[in-house]
UniProtKB/TrEMBL annotation:
Name of the featured protein: Proline dehydrogenase
Entry's localization field: Mitochondrion matrix
Biological or metabolic pathway of the protein: Amino-acid degradation; L-proline degradation into L-glutamate; L-glutamate from L-proline: step 1/2
Record GO biological process: L-proline catabolic process to L-glutamate
UniProt-listed InterPro entries: FAD-linked_oxidoreductase-like (IPR029041), Proline_DH_dom (IPR002872), Proline_oxidase (IPR015659)
Keywords: Acetylation, FAD, Flavoprotein, Mitochondrion, Oxidoreductase, Proline metabolism, Transit peptide
Amino acid sequence: MGKRFRSTVASTQRDEVEGGKEKQVDECTVVKAVQADLITQSKNTTEAQTQKIEIDFDNTHEAYKSKDNIELLRSLLVFKLCTFDFLVDKNKELMDLSKKVFGQRLFERLMKMTFYGQFVAGEDHNSIKPLIHKNQAFGVGSVLDYSVEEDLTQEEAEKKEMEQHYVSCCFLTLGVDHREKKYKAHRQFGDRRGGVVSARTYFYADEAKCDNQMETFLNCIKASGGASVDGFSAIKMTALGRPQFLLQFSAVLVKWRRFFNLLAAQQGKSGMDALEQKLELEQLKVRIGCAYRTEFDFEYVIYIMSPRTIDLLDWNSLINDRTSISNLLVIPNVETGQLEPLLRKFTVEEEKQMKRMLQRVDVLAKHAVDNGVRLMVDAEQTYFQPAISRLTLEMQRIFNREKPIIFNTYQCYLKEAYDNVSVDMELSRREGWYFGAKLVRGAYMYQERSRAEEIGYEDPINPDYEATNRMYHKCLEFVLEEINHNRKANVMVASHNEDTVKFTLEKMNQMGLSPTENKVYFGQLLGMCDQISFPLGQAGFPVYKYVPYGPVNEVIPYLSRRALENRGFMKGSQRERSLLWKELKRRLLNGQILYKPVY
């Protein structure tokens, strides 16, 4: 094998981190930003002889010049309403009541003047074009997403989740099920929307519905390709097949990783970072060579590896070449030294369903390549995520050879976030493909903590919000240093946190990373944090607004989640409202009562 790459490029002097939560951003499409006079530039002679960029996020004239006064007043009204607990808690009931009292037409007009107008671009592709073109003129791209959601009751959601789980389990040989509690469906958490306000949830019905959802993603990819030359589109794995498959695959991957950690501990290498745990092959042969000789050819492993050590990435690669998905779902038994099936039996139809899920993912990836669109795979719950990340990694190995097409999402409120980023980055270095990451804080914190406590496994979430910020910045700095090192990494900073954005700009200045290289992107939701998005866009940075669209009645679940999300966001910070008031007062004092954006 060729030369070994270094195991890390990030600074070794980092704080130990853990974390809390911020909302996840689901991205889709972008338009290149336009240079404006908002930035201050000075020569940076100590770093990379490049221009230093500083952005004033207090400059309300630049931040809101794409908005007329009515839009500013609407933002103030909506954000204020989001601070009232009663209105937020009962938002769906109040919307249903308003529809009955005012009638459908008046209700829709009222919604378009308030919440719908703030967070949704329009009802169809044609009606959203004016907003997309306006944002583009002010340097901000548009993330297109058809935001119609299935409006299920909790009972209906639990029934759907458990039915698709039962179909699989009823074919098992009695008494053979090696999965841990975490990787099994539980009725009390069957409604996966519980405690989740910033991410959409899909429930499995049948294969035809999965095909329809794939078509929706395909349409989004087409729209993204038509809106810009370097667009993005986002997908969710749970929309493309039975989530039960993701549970089973995740259980296998976690079992193998723990087995690797056990062997590392036996060689005195516990407590190290994931990439520093390297197993000596000769010791490994002595320990398990006989028991696993029929499964693994250690002489071949020694032949292809240099030096004579094996680490987590190489260990995972040992189970990649199995042709049958059922055969893939095997785990090592530490006591007997034998490989055992995770579950005893799969039906022919289950095999087909699993393969169709992978085929749908493949179709989307190829379609993204054909349309010149980059594909982001959204993160989901931790009991699905090992499988989602591994499938995404396999797509990256195929499609990211010449440029970054596939992006994985890393939730930085997880205790293992940095290990996940660093391990995947190392694989991209060894194999020579482009690494693509979207960093979010996370969308499932309350549900994850509640499920871990109730079912009885370790809480995967770090303890507090401040620690999550440190974890986010640690992962971000690691990727930025990799970009600085070889320009083959790319990152989406998906955050509404102004301090995180400033941290990113500071690191980019220190490393001499130019926004025009399109290696670092920023993303926020439509209707939120315009004081961040628009100054960045006008300064030449690639910035993305997630732009939902769909009929008023059918996006009510989405609007309900936005109200819940903004309650915490607005209670925690008065900054956006104060900036809106500041700009409105400035315009009134300057006689700009009828201000209209010019573009």
